[in-house]
Amino acid sequence: MGKQFLFILFSLTILVGTISCDDKPRPKNERVSFSDTVTQPVFNSEGTYTEDSSMTIPQYSQAGEYKVEYGYSSYDEEKFGHSNPGYMRVFKGDSLIFEDSFKGEGTVFFESFGYQELAGKKLVFELTNGTEACDYYSFSRYYVSFGDKIYFLKTVTSFTGGDQYSSLFYDHIFPQDSAGIQNSILLVEGQVFYEHDQPDRSDTTLIHFTDHDFTMTKLTDNLSKVK
């Protein structure tokens, strides 16, 4: 098992790409959005977002039998910095069944991964906010739905420094993926160092499901050793 995880982590690490460092930040675009409403953020002359009413227009996506509404309740980077108040609401029919909040900046993206075989069919989806540019963090929140309830799983982060010294990355492995584990999601988080002055490091969190519950176990603790 240990050798298998090391191979998984090494394979994911070498697949990580760098984020280009443009003069102007641009919205994170590698995530697929299924929203009915598309909003374009407005940049000021310094390349950062200003107060922008378009960022508070609700976006909507469909995930399985659920309708998901998400966005910012207020957006002003001069006032809130990178902590603009955001929200996500999940509806089944006309009933609100789940609500969550976050603080962030940049465009919000939603992605549904469909129903996964996790001790029965369970819907997995992700909400991401941030800007694809050097020195900007992107945050992704994983959720799972079963038994007409929504559960928050974990927040993961991606980032590349403007000096191109290192990058943070993440990925997920579902049971049907190569090296997947039955009834489990593997969330891999890592950091690569382009100067190779210290070793690349990765950690894996195992989320194991039963019919009506799940447990979360961090299998390694390598990122805490980064100097």
Looking at this protein, list some descriptive labels.
227 residues, mainly beta, nine-stranded antiparallel β-sheet, four-stranded antiparallel β-sheet, 13 strands, 7% helix, flat, disordered N terminus
The helix fraction, in percent, is: under 10%
Q: How far do the termini sit from each other?
A: 28 Å
User: How much is the average pLDDT?
Assistant: 82
What's the helix count? 2
| Number of E-type strands | 13
Q: Tell me, briefly, the overall form.
A: flat
Order of helices and strands: HEEEHEEEEEEEEEE
Short description:
It is built from two helices and 13 strands; from the N terminus they run αβββαββββββββββ. The protein has helices at about 1-15, 75-80; strands at about 25, 60-65, 65-70, 85-90, 95-105, 110-115, 120-130, 140-145, 150-160, 165-175, 185-195, 200-210, 215-220.
Structure, described:
The chain has 227 residues and is mostly beta strands. 7% of the residues lie in helices and 48% in strands. It contains two helices and 13 strands. The protein has helices spanning 2-14, 77-80; strands at 26-27, 59-63, 66-72, 84-92, 95-104, 108-117, 121-132, 138-146, 149-160, 166-173, 184-193, 201-209, 214-218. Strands 1, 6, 7, 8, 9, 10, 11, 12 and 13 form a nine-stranded antiparallel sheet that branches. Strands 2-3-4-5 form a four-stranded antiparallel sheet. Residues 1-20 and 22-45 have low confidence and may be disordered.
